[in-house]
Specification:
Number of helices of chain A: 9
Distance between the termini of chain A: 50 Å
CATH class of one domain in chain B: Alpha Beta
Strand order of the largest sheet of chain B: 6-9-10-3-11-12
Structural class of chain A: alpha/beta
Number of strands of chain A: 21
Number of helices of chain B: 9
InterPro entries (chain B): AAA+_ATPase (IPR003593), ABC_transporter-like_ATP-bd (IPR003439), ABC_transporter-like_CS (IPR017871), FeS-cluster_ATPase_SufC (IPR010230), P-loop_NTPase (IPR027417)
GO molecular function, one term (chain B): ATP binding
Order of helices and strands of chain A: HHHEHEEEHHEEEEEEEEEEEEEEEEEHHH
Keywords (chain B): ATP-binding, Cell membrane, Membrane, Nucleotide-binding
CATH architecture of one domain in chain B: 3-Layer(aba) Sandwich
Radius of gyration of chain B: 19 Å
Distance between the termini of chain B: 36 Å
CATH topology of one domain in chain B: Rossmann fold
Protein name (chain B): Fe-S cluster scaffold complex subunit SufC
Number of domains of chain A: 2
Helix content of chain B: 25-40%
Bound molecules: adenosine-5'-triphosphate, magnesium ion
Shape of chain B: globular
Shape of chain A: globular
Largest interface: A-B, 22 and 28 residues
Number of strands of chain B: 12
Family (chain B): Belongs to the ABC transporter superfamily. Ycf16 family.
Helix content of chain A: 10-25%
Largest sheet of chain B: 6 strands, mixed
Largest sheet of chain A: 11 strands, mixed
CATH superfamily of one domain in chain B: P-loop containing nucleotide triphosphate hydrolases
Oligomer: heterodimer
């Protein structure tokens, strides 16, 4: 134990060494938040596979690599960021290695939604933020959230006022450009009562060397709000991507999320969703990985109050010697009667070296509930392959078609057409084996 | 229709096949010529679907003896897709659902693939849309089925119509219809039978597996075969089907047994 503790301490210390770069804020509460987080980082250790929550996911690689906080900002040209443009989006906030890039960002001030970097948000309405920022993504016992919060400086802030409904999505783009750095993307979305908004959280890379993204996103839905959240993890293939998401749904609000994981050598996404009365959520995911990639998704859907509904479909397409992990916890608390919860984990293994660990976890403390869950792991169905062949398609084409269809079921749920077709193409490219 | 000197489409000689070590086909003989319509009847489990799927190239069945020639070629030298391109078409007894594969895309890809292999024109998406809608009209299918996943959530009868739609598009030389009539309501039976009759011509042949005379009222067979325990034990004309409907299968088996004992 002692050796690994030393290694851990060294690793965290090296990451925290950059903290002096985070200037103190004039806001006392923000300084307190950060210093609490620093304290927690001092107490917590980097998880190992001995921790139940990290049993399948070996991140010891993080210890062997030296990441440093971003020291210099890269001056990206508009064209370099432009290739990630999503045409439907009216506003786009761009962060380069976690640092806000105002010259690459486009902010539509007409449609009633406030989309700004944290600094501007604090200047405009610090009081509203004090009660939200860092209050949903638990960092006291989660070392990566704690690290992110310790480094809290730039952040994407989306505030949708009451009853404002916008169809054009907001694009939050995080571009990795430097090797060996650790960056700390942060998002806070506040959806006022009765508001409607679509947000795309997008992680991309302009280089293929190793780096570390440690992201935290908090989403708060007031009563009757509706949020579409699309999360695209298309990091570089040597990256380590660890993210924590926390979503809080007030009464009768509706959260629809699709998250896709294509990139990173190692990725881990923890998502906690907490539902109040009559709230509804759909939490869907697709991990499409190959080679030596590892993609781990841990979700916890917490039915804290009665009459709420949650649907979850998580899929993994695993090729090469890749490894996918899904742990889906559904919690139905005492008194959360009439909970309606459906969860399904479906996994497709393309090779016999590919590997999946899937674990649905139901914890039900109410008696009048409807909860279903199921998990499948398998190869392509040989009867389906034969059916397609019997219509003249070669076996390779048949297999490609079925693999693509398996992934497309999730991509089709993305309500932004250009992003949907872009990702469909990605799935097509990655699932197409040349004959 | 029986044409004099018509070419042989399918010639099956002494076909034996097993699945998971159990022998199911035990010396099956059948000759089908261009223009002909054959009906295969027989009790449940006698091997009719097994035979159909072996012709289409299903890999679960192991051929242990006999030969099958299709248009002069050894069928067993051909992959399932090569058979389809050469003109073998099986309408499945239980068409499978394929979630996520959109019907219109699937139909267009199969159509164009088969066309290419027959040195015929492919259709672009717009042309194909017109083409497939025309075919669907004949089968009184709603165009809504184009946008759905292949067979997913289709009713039993809708799945059968989707099979006949594919048959109509792929213009097979040999169509094997495995209980296409089961699960069809009276109107659908007539519509599907019309679809099949439109295909039937002097250049292609149809083999229908059925349990019921009612289909044969619409698609009149030139030959009716009785299959039992993996062999064809009796062949007659359309009158045989009426007799089977009236008397069941037992007498055929008995007659066959008596004949073989007499021969011995
Ligand atoms: N994959 C398989 N594994 C084991 N047995 C099989 C398999 N496929 C077919 N059989 C067996 O082979 C026999 C013939 O089945 P087949 O489906 O060919 O009958 P059929 O004549 O089409 O019957 P029905 O009229 O009920 O459709 C049956 O006893 C069946 O159980
Ligand atoms: Mg059958």
């Amino acid at each position: 134990m002692s050796t690994s503790d030393t290694v851990n301490a060294g690793y965290l210390e090296s990451l925290l060494a950059g903290r002096p770069h985070v200037p103190a804020s004039p806001l006392a509460w923000l300084n307190t938040l950060r210093s609490e987080a620093v304290d927690r980082v001092g107490v917590l250790t980097v998880p190992t596979q001995r921790d139940e929550e990290w049993r399948f996911t070996d991140i010891s690689q993080l210890n062997r690599m030296s990441f440093h906080p971003v020291r210099t900002t890269v001056d990206l040209q508009a064209e370099e960021a432009g290739r990630f443009r999503i045409e439907e989006a009216a506003s786009r906030l761009v962060f380069v290695d976690g640092v806000y890039a105002p010259h690459l960002s486009i902010i539509d001030t007409d449609n009633g939604v406030s989309v700004v970097n944290l600094e501007a948000g604090l200047a405009a309405n610090a009081v509203a933020l004090e009660s939200c920022l860092g209050r949903y993504a638990e960092f006291r016992n989660e070392v990566f959230s704690a690290l992110n919060t310790a480094f809290l400086q730039d952040a994407a802030l989306v505030v949708v006022p009451q009853d404002v409904s916008v169809s054009a999505p907001v694009h939050l783009l995080f571009i990795a450009t430097q090797k060996d750095v650790a960056s700390y993307p942060r998002c806070l979305l506040l959806a006022g009562s009765g508001s409607v908004v679509t947000v795309i959280e997008d992680y991309v890379s302009l280089q293929e060397d190793a780096y570390f993204t440690n992201a935290v996103t908090e989403i708060v839905l007031a009563e009757n709000a509706r949020v579409n959240h699309i999360r695209v993890q298309r990091e570089g293939m040597k990256a380590v991507h660890i993210a924590n998401g926390a979503v809080s749904l007030a009464r009768a609000s509706n959260y629809q999320s699709v998250s896709v994981a294509f990139g990173a050598r190692i990725s881990r996404y923890n998502l906690n969703v907490r539902l109040a009365e009559e709230a509804e959520c759909a939490v869907d995911g697709l991990a499409l990985i190959a080679g030596r990639q590892l993609a781990d998704t841990h979700t916890c859907i917490d039915h804290a109050k009665p009459h709420a509904m949650s649907h979850q479909l998580h899929k993994c397409i695993v090729g090469g010697g890749a490894h996918a992990v899904f742990n889906g916890k559904i919690m139905v608390r005492q008194g959360a009667q009439r909970t309606d919860s459906r969860q399904s984990s479906r996994n497709l293994l393309l090779t016999n070296k590919a590997h999946v660990d899937t674990k649905p976890q139901l914890e039900i403390f109410a008696d009048d509930v409807k909860c279903t869950h199921g998990a499948t792991i398998g190869q392509l169905d040989s009867e389906e392959v034969f059916y397609l062949q019997s219509r003249g398609l070669s076996e390779t084409v048949a297999r490609n078609m079925l693999t693509y269809a398996f992934g497309a079921e999730i991509i089709e749920r993305i309500p932004v057409p250009s992003l949907k077709s872009l990702l469909e193409q990605t799935v097509l490219d990655q699932t197409t084996v040349q004959p | 229709m029986i044409y004099p000197d018509s070419k042989i489409v399918l010639e099956v000689r002494g076909l034996c096949a097993s699945v998971n070590g159990t022998e199911i086909l035990k010396g099956l003989d059948l000759t089908v010529r261009r223009g002909e319509v054959h009906a295969i009847m027989g009790p449940n489990g006698s091997g009719k679907s097994t035979f159909s799927k072996i012709l289409a190239g299903h890999s679960a069945y192991e051929v242990t003896g006999g030969t099958v020639m299709f248009e002069g070629q050894n069928l067993f030298d051909m992959e399932p897709e090569e058979r389809a391109r050469a003109g073998v078409f099986l309408a499945f007894q239980y068409p499978i659902e394929i979630p996520g594969v959109i019907n219109s895309q699937f139909l267009r890809l199969t159509y164009n693939t088969v066309q290419t292999h027959r040195d015929k024109e492919e259709l672009d998406p717009l042309e194909f849309d017109d083409y497939v809608r025309e075919k669907m009209k004949l089968l009184e299918m709603s165009p809504d089925f184009l946008e759905r996943s292949v067979n997913e959530g289709f009713s039993g009868g809708e799945k059968k119509r989707n099979e006949i739609l594919q048959m109509a598009m792929l213009d097979p030389r040999l169509a094997i219809l495995d209980e296409t009539d089961s699960g069809l309501d009276i109107d659908a039976l007539r519509i599907v039978a019309n679809g099949v009759n439109q295909l039937a011509g002097k250049d292609n042949a149809i083999v229908m597996v059925t349990h019921y005379q009612r289909l044969l009222n619409y698609i009149v067979p030139d030959y009716v075969h009785v299959m039992e325990a993996g062999r064809i034990i009796k062949t007659g004309d359309k009158e045989l089907a009426l007799e089977l409907e009236a008397r069941g299968y037992d007498w055929v088996g008995a007659e066959c047994k008596a004949a073989s004992e007499a021969a011995a």
